[in-house]
């Protein structure tokens, strides 16, 4: 994985010094809270319901064991012994003291990490495919391009006061595991007819209160123009993005109101101008970055069969392991969704265990997924039994990836100052219900996503089943949505009808699942059946 | 809005150029485009700085107003002027704060007339904080990638 050189290290160290000084001036009253707020946000520090929350960047979701150990230590030293992995492949801590935040950032900098631009109206942490470098279906490893974009977007002087936040995702396979088209800019690394590698740009996607699937703006941007084209996209947005209404300030609204063709035309005009400015790093910079992401020394002649005599182990292999490009290896997803647990939470001890296992079984690497799980990207099939045993000891061996128990949920009203309803208890009850009845496994792939307000941090628009918590005259109410997908068949879920109370929504999910079980045809996932039979049979079951 | 507005030389707290300051007030972009003699113009966040590009030869001062520091359109305005070769003064006016000074410099601002006077020591620290930069702009600083590859 990427290793900082002295320049990268100096940049994060300088940032820590800058934030330490800003915090000092705030505590001394030299700057107002209004002036300080964007500064702390751009260092990942939110003021939540009960305390400050700090969001740490995990660029393109990749961590080594030293970094994972450091995240565990931070949970112990500055928080209450746990952290929360997020849908942006980051980690959040919920109980941070402002006075201690500069020290926390200094601890992060020691392991080449930071919280830069994990919040605020700027370009956020770049996300990517959690199986990068492992997936059999990828064209190239997308992470060198993400790293190039990370450096370009960090402290970009023109784009630190955008109309609104800005999220970029880079993938390199036709299978989308990163919700690419639901980003402000989604980049897919592609090959053109001439066999050259370049970037397809999708611009103006997003969830939130107005979900939109990003349209294709340009089919092919040559690699030696990637930064220039990105800069053109951002400049047009900075110039014309709405600033009169924060709910209409994302680039998706601009692209929608201006029209994608006119937006693309303006970008082309700016792009042509910027090409004259020589702002693009040379390809040599990309070549410098690439070797950091070279394949580890995969062994050959490995066994391709695990001992499946233990049923529980076999079930875990089937749900949590993914085919690897190297024979004899798989990518293992560690579920952070134990039955009845809080989605995405990991304790200090669990983080230490995952760090050790990454070192011992996966070439010192692990990944955070947008579904709030952890991946060990390169594990020998012959060592899976052993690994499974160690995961089970740490309560990390839940076999439910992409099943109904693998719920994405935002922190909700338990933590978040924006939320209207709690997400976590609903997730816990649904997970428990389907585990107890044994239906969870019968259902196969069923992605359930819960948001505690219309800002949609829990990706409810993209759930095969989505749940949206709202405030209905002072009580929590939950709307049910069906038919969303964040994958390459991107679609937005539709609301079934009137909402439910907390107990009612758990029953409603079960009724929807039962409709699927009764109507499914051979090989169909929940989503496929929904797409074939439509909303009506579900409505009949829900509101009969 | 009056035709004549803007800051006076006395309002300028920091300036990174040696030429003499323009001694008359800046006019709005509309007023500037309507008349031929003004040498100082003020850009508001909603103005398109590119309208000035055909007239750069007669401009000596561009004020870029930040009515609120969170509105970042002025950064793009300044860069557009510098990228077109404008080498006169670009003055940041309005809600100009310590923690925006360094990035304003990077975008081409070379004079600062904050509504509220800034602490000089804090400002000097801010101007000098970053020894290196990741991006190429027109400020003449070599980005890190250029240093890496010579």
UniProtKB/TrEMBL annotation, chain A:
Q: Which GO terms describe its molecular function?
A: sulfite reductase (ferredoxin) activity
EC class name: oxidoreductase
Provide the alphabetized UniProt keywords.
4Fe-4S, Iron, Iron-sulfur, Metal-binding, Oxidoreductase
Nitrite/sulphite reductase 4Fe-4S domain location: 119-273, 405-542
Coiled-coil intervals, chain numbering:
none
Keyword Transferase attached: no
Domain Nitrite/Sulfite reductase ferredoxin-like span(s) in chain numbering:
52-110, 332-394
| Highest rank taxon of the organism | Bacteria
One of the Pfam families matching this protein, by short name = NIR_SIR
Q: Which cofactor does it need?
A: [4Fe-4S] cluster; siroheme
Q: Sorted alphabetically, which InterPro entries does this protein's record hold?
A: NiRdtase/SiRdtase_haem-b_fer, Nit/Sulf_reduc_fer-like_dom_sf, NO2/SO3_Rdtase_4Fe4S_dom, NO2/SO3_Rdtase_4Fe4S_prot, NO2/SO3_Rdtase_4Fe4S_sf
EC number(s) on file: 1.8.7.1
Entry protein name: Nitrite/sulfite reductase
Please report the organism this UniProt entry assigns to the protein: Aurantiacibacter flavus
Automatic annotation (TrEMBL), chain B:
InterPro entries documented for this protein: UCP030820 (IPR008318)
Q: Which Pfam families match?
A: DUF934
What is the name of the protein in this document?
Answer: DUF934 domain-containing protein
Organism for this UniProt entry: Aurantiacibacter flavus
């Amino acid at each position: 994985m990427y290793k900082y050189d002295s320049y990268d290290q100096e940049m994060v160290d300088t940032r820590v010094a800058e934030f330490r000084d800003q915090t000092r001036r705030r505590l001394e009253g030299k700057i107002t809270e209004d002036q300080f707020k964007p500064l702390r946000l751009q260092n990942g520090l939110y003021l939540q319901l009960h305390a400050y929350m700090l969001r740490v960047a995990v660029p393109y979701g990749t961590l080594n064991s030293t970094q994972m150990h450091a995240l565990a230590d931070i949970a112990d030293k500055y928080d209450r012994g746990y952290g929360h992995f997020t849908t942006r492949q980051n980690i959040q801590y919920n109980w941070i003291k402002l006075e201690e935040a500069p020290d926390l950032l200094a601890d992060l900098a020691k392991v080449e990490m930071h919280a830069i631009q994990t919040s605020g109206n700027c370009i956020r942490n770049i996300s990517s495919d959690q199986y990068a470098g492992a997936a059999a279906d990828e064209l190239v490893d997308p992470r060198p391009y993400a790293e190039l974009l990370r450096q370009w977007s960090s402290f970009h002087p023109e784009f630190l006061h955008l109309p609104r936040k800005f999220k970029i995702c880079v993938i390199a396979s036709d299978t989308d595991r990163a919700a690419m088209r639901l980003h402000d800019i989604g980049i897919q690394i592609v090959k053109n007819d001439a066999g050259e590698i370049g970037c397809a740009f999708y611009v103006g996607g997003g969830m939130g209160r107005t979900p939109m699937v990003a349209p294709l703006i340009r089919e092919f941007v040559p690699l030696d123009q990637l930064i220039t084209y990105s800069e053109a996209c951002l400049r047009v947005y900075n110039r014309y993005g709405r600033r009169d209404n924060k709910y209409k300030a994302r680039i998706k609204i601009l692209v929608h109101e201006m029209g994608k063709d006119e937006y693309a035309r303006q970008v082309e005009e700016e792009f042509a101008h910027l090409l004259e400015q020589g702002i693009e790093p040379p390809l040599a910079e990309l070549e410098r970055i690439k070797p950091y992401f070279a394949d580890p020394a995969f062994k050959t002649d490995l066994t391709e069969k695990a001992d499946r005599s233990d049923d529980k182990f076999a079930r875990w292999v089937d749900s949590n392991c993914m085919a690897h490009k190297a024979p004899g290896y798989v990518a293992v997803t560690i579920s952070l969704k134990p039955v009845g647990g809080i989605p995405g939470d990991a304790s200090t001890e669990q983080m230490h265990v995952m760090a050790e296992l990454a070192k011992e079984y996966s070439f010192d690497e692990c990944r955070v997924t947008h579904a709030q799980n952890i991946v060990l990207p390169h594990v020998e099939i012959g060592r899976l039994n052993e690994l499974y045993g160690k995961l089970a000891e740490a309560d990390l061996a839940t076999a439910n990836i992409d099943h109904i128990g693998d719920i994405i949920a935002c922190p909700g009203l338990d933590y978040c100052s924006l939320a209207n309803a709690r997400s976590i208890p609903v997730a816990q009850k649904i997970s428990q219900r389907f585990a107890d009845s044994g239906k969870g496994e019968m259902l196969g792939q069923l992605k359930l996503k819960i948001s505690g307000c219309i800002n949609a941090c829990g990706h409810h628009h993209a759930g095969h089943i989505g749940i949206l918590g709202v405030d209905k005259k002072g009580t929590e109410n939950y709307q049910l949505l069906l038919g969303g997908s964040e994958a390459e068949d991107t679609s937005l879920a539709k609301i079934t009808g009137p909402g439910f109370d907390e107990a009612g929504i758990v029953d409603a999910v079960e009724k929807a699942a039962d409709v699927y079980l009764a109507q499914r045809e051979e090989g169909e996932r929940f989503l496929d059946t929904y797409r074939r039979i439509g909303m009506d049979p579900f409505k009949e079951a829900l509101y009969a | 809005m009056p035709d004549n507005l803007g800051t006076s030389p006395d309002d300028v707290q920091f300036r990174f150029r040696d030429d003499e300051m323009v001694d008359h007030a800046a006019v709005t972009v509309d007023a500037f485009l309507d008349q031929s003699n003004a040498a100082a113009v003020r850009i508001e966040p909603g103005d398109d700085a590119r309208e000035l590009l055909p007239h750069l030869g007669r401009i000596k001062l561009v004020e870029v107003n930040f009515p609120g520091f969170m509105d970042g359109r002025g950064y793009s305005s300044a860069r557009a002027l510098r990228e077109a070769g404008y080498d006169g003064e670009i003055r940041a006016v309005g809600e100009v704060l310590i923690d925006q000074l360094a990035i304003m410099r990077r975008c081409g601002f070379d004079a600062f007339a904050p509504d509220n006077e800034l602490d000089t020591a804090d400002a000097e620290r801010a101007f000098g904080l970053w020894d290196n930069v990741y991006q190429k702009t027109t400020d003449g600083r070599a980005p890190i990638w250029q240093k890496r590859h010579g």
